[in-house]
């Protein structure tokens, strides 16, 4: 029931020929997931016969069960008539017939992991659980309310098991196994930051710096393009670990400085990541008191509307701003709808003039979506 629905009896797949009978297939799924209890007539009528037009929903339910037994029998499950038991209009599966259900095994391994003594035993059960989770619970029946709630629950249980397993694998230095588990888990939860953190750490600690860099760029782009948010500080901190030279590698100072200057010879203002901008702001607040120079921060706010419209304005601003700044000025995209600029050795009036130049460079359509600007001097850190 995880990642799809199939029944295998004596190595034969039973469900393939039943896919055209949607309602009886969903009835079978419901009886399986509730197989340890007697499912009342009223409960089944609510889920499967509420749209019956005959005026006799009880008869419609009996016919549905009759059709289910027949379809199963015709498709090779000769025990079908004994599989579904009825009692006073209620139904349940015959638990005297051996039935292995993946969701039950998944829950069992998850519970055993919680009760396990020691990391080795706990890891064994956690990995058995995550191995069983091949995808969402009954993905082709997501229109059923009872399926939707269980989908959410099983997915949360899967993530709980996966993250616990990753914690143990990482602590034990089993980085190859951690990397593989992350790749599989990210197919299920591509926007889980904890998974991305474990994945990047596994790559970095294995010395896979280029793979780690590529992975970081992918997740940064994905989070911003799809969710419109920047990465958390924990993930951004991993970026510096990717770029750090190896401790045992000694380089001449000239070589290091030349490398630092690569790609910095473009005209206009300098764009940097928000985390870098934050560090430079902190440095500036420490130095302005001693240097005596004036530094101002300018913010440009764009209307917070549909992402397609907002991103069009922000993209246009991103092209205009650097051309209006000097080489020593900095700017960053502080949020999906805000740019922040750091301007050195200017007066307050100079800053206002700069804002006017930026606004004049926008066409009327983009200008109408600017909701405000603000200017603040960098205060000395006391």
CATH topology of the largest domain: Serine Threonine Protein Phosphatase 5, Tetratricopeptide repeat
Can you tell me the residue ranges where pLDDT is under 50 for at least 5 consecutive residues? none
Strand order of the largest sheet: 5-7-8-6-9
* Strand segment count: 9
In the CATH hierarchy, what is the class of the largest domain?
Mainly Alpha
Structural class: alpha+beta
Principal-axis shape equals: elongated
Note the gap between the termini.
62 Å
Number of helices in the DSSP assignment: 16
Name the CATH architecture of the largest domain. Answer: Alpha Horseshoe
- In what range is the share of β-strand residues? 5-15%
The Rg value, from CA coordinates, equals 30 Å
CATH superfamily of the largest domain: Tetratricopeptide repeat domain
Number of domains: 3
Sheet with the most strands, sense and barrel status: 5 strands, mixed
Rounded mean pLDDT is 85
Order of helices and strands: EEHHHHEEHHHHHHHHEHEHEEHHE
Fraction of residues in H or I helices: 55-70%
